[in-house]
Design goal:
Distance between the termini of chain A: 24 Å
Order of helices and strands of chain A: EHEEHEHHHHEHEHEHEHEHEHHEE
Strand content of chain A: 15-25%
Number of helices of chain B: 14
Number of domains of chain A: 2
Structural class of chain B: alpha/beta
Largest sheet of chain A: 10 strands, mixed
CATH superfamily of chain B: Thiolase/Chalcone synthase
Number of strands of chain A: 12
Structural class of chain A: alpha/beta
Distance between the termini of chain B: 31 Å
Radius of gyration of chain A: 21 Å
Helix content of chain B: 25-40%
Oligomer: heterodimer
CATH class of chain B: Alpha Beta
Strand order of the largest sheet of chain B: 5-4-6-7-1-8-14-13-9-10
Radius of gyration of chain B: 21 Å
CATH superfamily of the largest domain in chain A: Thiolase/Chalcone synthase
Number of helices of chain A: 13
Number of strands of chain B: 14
Strand order of the largest sheet of chain A: 5-4-6-7-1-8-12-11-9-10
CATH architecture of the largest domain in chain A: 3-Layer(aba) Sandwich
Largest interface: A-B, 100 and 94 residues
C-alpha cells in the first residue's frame, strides 16, 4: 500500500539561472529568459527567440569530454539539477546503496548536430546534390563518429547521469511534452510510496535548441514569431504572441514521509495527488482526478500553476477547462504560469513548476511583476498587488499538457518542518 | 488497507515480420519460422546490413488501407502501433472508446533522415540553417523535425477514443517492457482499470540501419537471412533489426470479469533496474539484469522455483547473451537448469524499443498454452551460455509462470512476470 511521499530536494536550471535560487530571484526581478536564439543562425526561422540555459561545465559535474558529448546538453542540465536536489535533500551525490534509489526522467528528442553528420552527408550526395543511399552505404556512413548513435538516444545520456550518481534502482525515461514530465513524477511517487525505492529522483530536461529541434517546435506548437526583446509569450493574455521554447532541467528528490522525517530531512512539499487524461477535456479531467474530485464550489487548491504555454488558442482551451473545473465567479483559485519567463521547458516543465511551487511554499509569496496580466478571457490571476502579500498557498495544482490532446496534473501540498 | 488488484491480460495485438495476426505469429513461432529476410528495397542493396525482420510490403499495404492517416504521414512506427492497438482492443472486446483507458507505449527514436541534412548543405558542404529554417515544410513527413517520440501513443489514444492519458517510454530496448510495467503500475495503484500498453518501432532507413554497425552490435554476415540471428550460439555475430509493434490490453481483474472478458494470463509483477556500468556494454556479471528479475519475482510474490520459462532478451550479441545467462543463474540458482529459456529475436528480429511488446505477448501465450517456442539457429551452443534454450523445436511443458526480459542500451533493464490464471478462473 502506498505511503505518503514528500519532496526533500528540488534542483532547477533555467535560462534565468543555474540554480533554483537564481531563477527565483530573476523571476522576482521580473526578468524573462527569452533572447534571440544563440548557437546557430536562426534567421530563416519564423521564431527566432528562445529561453536558452547556459551549458554547465562538464568537468564541474565530474563528466569527461567524451561522456559530455554522448550526454548532450539536456542530460548535463539534468545532472546539474539532480545534484542540486540531492544536496538540498542532504543526500550524498553518489549513492551508497544505489539499488534502493530510483530515477525517473522526462526527456525530449536529442537531435543531431548537423556538423556531426556533415562529412557523411557531403559524401552521400549524388551528382544532383540529393542524398544517394548507395554512396552513403558504400563508405560515407563510416565518417560518422561511432558513438554518435548513443548520443541521439535520450536514455543513454540519462543512464550516464544516473551512473555518475551511483543509481541502480527503479527507473524510466518518459518522452514527449509536459505531460511526460508529469508521468515521471507520478511514476517516481508510486515507486517510492510502494516501497520499491527509498529515494527517487524525478524530473526532466528540455530539448536543446537546435535547427532540427526548432523545426519540430515549429510543427508541434504555435510559436512566437520574431526575436524582439518584448515579452512576447504572455500566458492567458489575448495579445500573447505564442510559445517561446525554453531550455533547462528540473529534478526533485522524493522520499516516503516517514523515512524523510526519520533522517531529519526538510520536507519541502507533499505529493498530494495526480491525474492523467487524453482527448476531450483532458486538462479538466486530469486536474479533477489529481484533486480526487474535490472541485466543487470552492477550490481545493490555493494556487493553480497552469500549463499556460502562451499560445492563445491552447490557453483559451485551458482557461475553459478551469472554468469547468471551478464554476462560479469566486470558485477558481488564482491561476498563474511561468512559461512567459522560463520559456516552455517541454518535458521539464512540471518539475520546474514544482520547484517553483517549493519556493512559493517556502517564501509565502509570488514573484513581483507577476504575471504578465490577464485578458478578458483569462481566468482570474493573482493581481500584481498580491505579490508578497496575503496568506501563503498551502496546496498547489500543477497542470501539464502534451503536444496532442493529452494532459496531466499533480497536486502538491506545503511541507512542514521536521 | 486493501490488497492491490490482480492485473490480467485480455487482449493481444501484433504487427511483425511474421504477420499481422497473433495467431499467425504464434503458429510461426512454434514452427520455428523466421521472418528475417533480405532487405526488400533496392536502395538498400549496398547497405552493410542486408537482412532485417521487416514487415512485408503486402502487410504494410494492409495497414495503410486500414489507417490511411498513418500511411499519409509515411510513419511506419505509428502505423504499426495503430494496427496492433486495433487488434488488441478488438481481441479484448473493447471497441467504441473508453474514457478511462490509458495508453503506455515504448517508442524509439524519431526518424532522423540524411535528407534532412543533405538537402540543406550549401555549395561548400556546410549545413545552411537559414535556408533550412525557411523551408521547414519541405521536411519529409516522417522526419523527426516534424514530431517526436510520443506521436504514436497520442495517435493511438485519439484514434480509438482512449481518454485515460498517454505515456511514452524511451529506454531503448527496454522501452516496451517498461511501458507495460508502467501500465501495470497505473492499474495497480487505482488510476485506471484498463490500459493499452506495448511498443512500436522501426529504424529501417539508412541511418537507422547503420547505427548498430557503427556501434559494432549488428550481425553483418552473408549468411542466409533466416539464420543470421543466433542467440546463445558461439557463432552469433550481433543483433538483426526488426520492426513492428506489439500491444496488449491490461485490466484490473474485477473489471475484466465484470464484462466477461477472456483472460490470457496474469501480469503478476514488474521491476526495472539500472546497470550503472557502461553506456556501451552490459554489466558482465549481469547484476542489473538480475536485479530486475528479482524485483519482478518479488512484486509477483513468486518464488524462483515457481517459474518454468524465461523469454530472454537474447539479442545474439556476444556480451548480452553471456551476461543474461549469468544473471539467470544468479537469480534462479540450481533451478536455472530446469528452466526453459528462449529468445524470440530470431523469429522477427530485434524490434528495438518495441521488442518487449511482441516478446511479452509470446510469453503470455506460452503461459496460456503451456508451449514455448524454440530459439532458432542455436546449433553450436556457446559454452558460456549453458542453459536450456529450447533449441530446434517448440516444446510443450507446464508453464506456471514466466518472465519476459528486456534490457536497453545504456543499462536500463526491465522484467515482467506472468502467471497462469487457473482454467476455472479463466473467464469466457
Amino acid at each position: 500500500m502506498s505511503e505518503r511521499v514528500v519532496i526533500t530536494g528540488a534542483g532547477l536550471v533555467s535560462a534565468l539561472g543555474g540554480d533554483r535560487a537564481a531563477t527565483w530571484a530573476a523571476l522576482g526581478g521580473g526578468r524573462s529568459g527569452a533572447t534571440p536564439v544563440a548557437g546557430f543562425d536562426a534567421r530563416g526561422f519564423a521564431c527566432r527567440r528562445a529561453a536558452q540555459a547556459a551549458v554547465p561545465d562538464p568537468a564541474a559535474l565530474g563528466v569527461s569530454p567524451r561522456d559530455a558529448y554522448i550526454m548532450g546538453r539536456s542530460n548535463l542540465w539534468f545532472l546539474q539539477a539532480a545534484r542540486a536536489a540531492l544536496a538540498e535533500a542532504g543526500l550524498p551525490l553518489v549513492c551508497t546503496d544505489g539499488t534502493v534509489v530510483g530515477c525517473f526522467a522526462a526527456l525530449g528528442m536529442i537531435d543531431p548536430v548537423p556538423d556531426d553528420l556533415r562529412t557523411a552527408a557531403t559524401r552521400s550526395r549524388g551528382p544532383d546534390g540529393a542524398f544517394d543511399p548507395g554512396r552513403f552505404y558504400a563508405d560515407a556512413y563510416r565518417e560518422i563518429y561511432p558513438l554518435w548513435p548513443l548520443a541521439i538516444l535520450n536514455n543513454v545520456g540519462f543512464c550516464m547521469a544516473a551512473t555518475s550518481m551511483g543509481i541502480r534502482g527503479e527507473n524510466a525515461v518518459f518522452a514527449g511534452g509536459a505531460d511526460a514530465g508529469a508521468a515521471a513524477l507520478i511514476e517516481a511517487a508510486d515507486v517510492v510510496g510502494a516501497g520499491r525505492a527509498v529515494v527517487a529522483l524525478a524530473g526532466g530536461a528540455a530539448e536543446a535548441i537546435t535547427p532540427l529541434g526548432l523545426a519540430r517546435w515549429h510543427h508541434q506548437a504555435e510559436l512566437c514569431p520574431g526575436d524582439g526583446p518584448e515579452p512576447a509569450c504572455r500566458p492567458f493574455h489575448p495579445a500573447s504572441g505564442g510559445v517561446v521554447p525554453g531550455e533547462g532541467a528540473a529534478v526533485l528528490v522524493l522520499e516516503r514521509e516517514a523515512s524523510a522525517r526519520a533522517r531529519g530531512a526538510g520536507i519541502l512539499a507533499v505529493v498530494a495527488g495526480w491525474g492523467r487524461a487524453s482527448g476531450a477535456q483532458a486538462v479538466a479531467r486530469a486536474a479533477e482526478t489529481a484533486l480526487n474530485g474535490r472541485t466543487g464550489g470552492t477550490p481545493a487548491v490555493d494556487l493553480c500553476i497552469a500549463h499556460g504555454e502562451g499560445a492563445p488558442a491552447r490557453d483559451a482551451e485551458e482557461a475553459a477547462a478551469y472554468r469547468r473545473l471551478w464554476p462560479g465567479p469566486d470558485a477558481a483559485p488564482p491561476v498563474a504560469a511561468f512559461k512567459g519567463r522560463l520559456g516552455h521547458l517541454g518535458p521539464a516543465a512540471p518539475a520546474a513548476d514544482a520547484a517553483l511551487a517549493v519556493e512559493i511554499f517556502r517564501t509565502g509569496c509570488l514573484p513581483a511583476a507577476w504575471p504578465d496580466g490577464a485578458g478578458p478571457d483569462a481566468v482570474p490571476v493573482l493581481p500584481l498587488a498580491a505579490a508578497g502579500a496575503g496568506p501563503a498557498p498551502r496546496t498547489v495544482l500543477l497542470a501539464a499538457r502534451g503536444w496532442i490532446d493529452t494532459a496531466a496534473a499533480v497536486a502538491l501540498s506545503a511541507g512542514v518542518a521536521p | 488497507m486493501s490488497a492491490p488488484p490482480r492485473i490480467v491480460v485480455t487482449g493481444l495485438g501484433l504487427a511483425t515480420a511474421l504477420g499481422l495476426s497473433v495467431a499467425e505469429n504464434w503458429d510461426k513461432a512454434r514452427r520455428g519460422e523466421s521472418g528475417i529476410r533480405s532487405l526488400p528495397d533496392p536502395a538498400d542493396a549496398q547497405s552493410p546490413i542486408q537482412a532485417a525482420g521487416a514487415v512485408t510490403a503486402a502487410d504494410r499495404e494492409r495497414i495503410a488501407q486500414a489507417f490511411p492517416e498513418a500511411a499519409a504521414a509515411e510513419e511506419r512506427r505509428t502505423a504499426f502501433a495503430l494496427w496492433a492497438a486495433a487488434a488488441a482492443l478488438h481481441d479484448a472486446g473493447l471497441t467504441g472508446g473508453h474514457s478511462r483507458c490509458g495508453v503506455a507505449l515504448g517508442a524509439g527514436l524519431g526518424v532522423i533522415r540524411m535528407e534532412d541534412i543533405t538537402r540543406w548543405l550549401d555549395p561548400a558542404g556546410a549545413f545552411d540553417p537559414v535556408r533550412f529554417g525557411a523551408e521547414l515544410d519541405r521536411l519529409h513527413p516522417e522526419s523527426s523535425g516534424r514530431h517526436g517520440h510520443d506521436r504514436a501513443a497520442a495517435c493511438v489514444a485519439a484514434r480509438f477514443g482512449l481518454g485515460g492519458g498517454t505515456a511514452t517510454v524511451t529506454t531503448a530496448c527496454a522501452s516496451a517492457a517498461q511501458a507495460i510495467g508502467s501500465a501495470w503500475r497505473a492499474i495497480r495503484r487505482g488510476d485506471t482499470p484498463v490500459m493499452l500498453a506495448g511498443g512500436a518501432d522501426s529504424m529501417i532507413h539508412p541511418l537507422g540501419l547503420v547505427n548498430f554497425v557503427l556501434l559494432g552490435a549488428a550481425a553483418t554476415g552473408g549468411d542466409d537471412p533466416a539464420t543470421l540471428c543466433r542467440p546463445f550460439d558461439r557463432r552469433r555475430g550481433g543483433l538483426v533489426m526488426g520492426e513492428g509493434a506489439g500491444l496488449v490490453v491490461l485490466e484490473d481483474e474485477a473489471h475484466a470479469r465484470d464484462r466477461g472478458a477472456r483472460i490470457y494470463a496474469e501480469l503478476a509483477g514488474y521491476a526495472s533496474s539500472m546497470d550503472a556500468y557502461r553506456a556501451t556494454a552490459p554489466d558482465p556479471e549481469g547484476r542489473g539484469a538480475a536485479a530486475a528479475m528479482r524485483g519482478a519475482l518479488a512484486t509477483a510474490g513468486l518464488a524462483p522455483d515457481a517459474v518454468d520459462y524465461v523469454n530472454a532478451h537474447g539479442t545474439g550479441t556476444k556480451l548480452n547473451d553471456v551476461a543474461e545467462t549469468i544473471a539467470i543463474h544468479s537469480v534462479f540458482g540450481p533451478h536455472a537448469a530446469r528452466l526453459a529459456v528462449s529468445s524470440s529475436k530470431p523469429l522477427f528480429g530485434h524490434l528495438l524499443a518495441a521488442c518487449g511488446g511482441p516478446e511479452f505477448i509470446l510469453t503470455v501465450l506460452s503461459v496460456a498454452e503451456d508451449t514455448v517456442h524454440p530459439t532458432l539457429n542455436l546449433t553450436r551452443p556457446d559454452p558460456k551460455c549453458d542453459l536450456d534454450y529450447v533449441p530446434g523445436a517448440a516444446r510443450r511443458l507446464s508453464v506456471r509462470a514466466a518472465l519476459s526480459n528486456s534490457f536497453g542500451f545504456g543499462g536500463q533493464n526491465a522484467c515482467l512476470a506472468v502467471r497462469k490464471v487457473p482454467p476455472a478462473e479463466g473467464g469466457s
